[in-house]
Amino acid sequence: MTAPQLGFNHRFVPGSRPGATPLLLLHGTGGDENDLLSLGQELSPGSPLLSPRGQVLENGMPRFFRRLSEGVFDLDDLKLRAGQLARFVAEARQRYGLGAAPIGVGFSNGANMAATLLLLHPGTLGSALLFRPMVPLVPDPLPSLKDVRVLIAGGRQDPIATPEQTQALADLLHRAGADVSLHWTRAGHGLTREDLEAGERWMSGVSAGVR
Fold first, then answer.
1. Handedness of CA 29, 34, 38, 39 (dihedral sign)
2. Is 189 a catalytic residue?
């Protein structure tokens, strides 16, 4: 059931595997709190799943922050919304008894918001799996992301989150100290089976503490 508490409409699915790290699922433009539940279950079976709905509407489609045009973000709104989401995650961890910081799993707009949480609110996410992200912003100074693991899944033919943007985000997070892996597929903006298989392998390594 969708729950309107804690400031966000969201879904929470309790974990069935003791000690499994929770996942924070962040949908793309036009998605909602239900979109990535099956993906989360596939990536990390038995993990608790926390899936909020973005609070910004663009032509009726939910997003996590405003944009001025394709690829041009409203940075003031981005910062505001990231702070609200970070507070939601902190409160949800208490409400649902989640011990560890969640692994952020985001697609497109959701991946950009997950990257923003890493850059502006370190500690909110323990690690992150970013499907088709861009550079959301460049904070000065950069945070310390030592011990944070990130997988970025980019599409070589993506016209939205271009390969140049994807590589730039990987470089930015690396400069901040994150352990960044970059996986490329010969695809556009949509996800492929190869993306999901790469995500599953990476998630298994994170869960096992493999580097």
1. positive
2. yes
Confidence of residue 210 (pLDDT cuts 50, 70, 90): very low
27 carries an active-site annotation? no
Residue bearing tokens 């950069």: 142
Burial class from Cβ neighbours inside 10 Å (0-12, 13-18, 19+) for residue 68 reads exposed
Residue 44 CA to residue 47 CA, distance in Å, equals 6
Radius of gyration of the chain (CA): 15
| Residue at 68: amino acid letter | L
Q: Considering the candidates 74, 174, 189, 207, report the single residue annotated as catalytic.
A: 189
Place of tokens 């505001």: 80
- Quote the strand ranges of 14-113, DSSP E: 23-26, 49-52, 56-58, 61-63, 67-69, 72-73, 103-107
- Please indicate whether residue 108 is annotated as part of the active site: yes
- Tally: H helices and E strands in the chain: 5, 11
Tell me the per-residue pLDDT of 128-154, one tens digit each, with 9 for 90 and over. 999 999 999 999 999 999 999 999 999
pTM: 0.94
Domains of the chain: residue spans and CATH: 5-208 (3.40.50.1820)
Cα dihedral 14→203→92→17 (10° resolution)? 30
